[in-house]
Amino acid sequence: LTLSDDEARAFLERIRWGHLGENKQVCPKCGSIDSHFWCKTPQRWKCRAKMCGHQFTVLQGTRLHGSKKSYQDLLALLFEFVEGKDSISARQLSGKHDLAYHTAYVLVMKVREAIADSMKAEPKLTGYIQADAAYFMKYVRPSNVGTGAALSAKRDQKNAGLDSDGKTKNTVSPKMHALVVFVQTGPAGKRRYKVAVVKTENQVDLLTLG
Asked: How far apart (Å, rounded) are the C-alpha atoms in residues 50 and 124?
């Protein structure tokens, strides 16, 4: 089922303002909660407050404010990002949706930043918490040494501390970091999650982040 641009906009508005009640919005300038005026041209809301009158869209006050993409395209891109089985890269998004790579990259980074902000705003996890980590950029990649004519140089380098293949031993990269996932255990649908990036997976780091 494909949504029209108006249907996609209405869907985003229900997600953002649906908890306020039927046909209610929040003016991002004055904070007034009301059934604000809908302007067909341009398509946006106008605050009912007499001292305000600010015009706004569902994206104002979010990281997607100012996007040149239609609501329909934005919703499709967000769906791809969330539902991707093994995640999805900016390059994949750019190819699938006929976008410039930089456009797709900026959008993906904005979504990731929004997710990080929402997790930071949540209260700390409580009860029994499990944590697991995956390390990235852990080692400095060893350089390769030529063969054939460079075989004698390869032997000399081996004597200088390289392994049998003429490669330097793995050393820990200063750029190494760990992505830690915290899970507050509980019944299905009640579990809470947090994700954090740390330099090392030690007890002090984990206790301060949970």
From this structure: 40
